[in-house]
Amino acid sequence: MPELSKIPWPFLILSFISILCALYVVTSNSPIRSVLALILTFFSISAHYVMLNAQFLAIVNLIVYAGAIMVLFLFVLMLLNLNKETEPLKSNKWLIGAAVSAGLLLLVFTASIQTSSEHIMRHPEAGTGLVKSLGKVLFTDYLVPFELSGILFLAAMVGAVMLGKRDAANESDTEITGREEV
User: Fold this and answer.
1) φ, ψ for residue 28, nearest 5 deg
2) How much is the pLDDT for 74?
3) What is the C-alpha separation between 171 and 180, in angstroms, rounded?
4) Which CATH number covers residue 73?
5) 169/179 Cα distance (integer angstroms)
């Protein structure tokens, strides 16, 4: 176990911010404030990724989670009408199950971190997490799956465009003739 004096201060500050914001997400009564605290949690986790020299993961975390998904959560929460009167009553038995589950998850997480960190410290690999090394592996070892996933995404986009155009064409035919084609 590393001594507290050997742990860098930015890591400790970011960890404190991450844990504080995550606790606020869970304990806040306002869903909007919970989502905003979750965005701050994602930003601090991205800063952790930068400290670990994993810039690609940091950018993906910011773009995908803090950007797209959190904006979606905010729009959904703003469109919903959340009132205390319409919320059903719940029993407090789920708190015991949540506490037991959280304890077991913490135990498994601690054990996995301890064993994996020992392996990583004994066998360090230079350039892990950098975009350059990720691109090298992606375009050498995993070129065929990468190309197949690109073809799959292209087929999905073409299918979505075709379905959208077909629906628009059917609507215009219905407006012109006044009847639907079967």
Assistant:
1) -70, 145
2) 75
3) 8
4) 1.20.120.1200
5) 13
Sequence-distant (≥ 6) Cβ neighbours of residue 53 within 8 angstroms: 128, 129, 130
Within a domain: residue 99?
no
Q: Residue 177's domain spans which residues? A: 142-182
Rounded to the nearest angstrom, the gap between the alpha carbon of residue 49 and the centroid of all alpha carbons in its chain is 14
Is there a domain that residue 111 lies in? no
Which pLDDT tens digit goes with each residue over 78-135?
Answer: 777 666 666 666 777 878 888 898 889 888 878 777 766 666 666 666 666 677 777 8
**Structure tokens given for 37:** 């605290």
pLDDT of residue 71: 79
Report the amino acid identity of residue 167.
D
Is there a contact between 147 and 154 (Cβ–Cβ < 8 Å)? no
Q: Is residue 77 part of a domain?
A: yes
User: 34, 61, 81: which is the final residue of a domain?
Assistant: 81
pLDDT over 90 at 30, yes or no: no
CB 56 within 8 A of CB 134: yes
pLDDT for the residue numbered 137:
83
Count of the separate structural domains present in the chain: 2
Give the pLDDT band of residue 22 (cuts 50, 70, 90): very high
d(CA 110, CA 73): 30
* Chain-centre distance for alpha carbon 32: 18
Instruction: For residue 68, give the 3-state DSSP assignment.
Output: helix
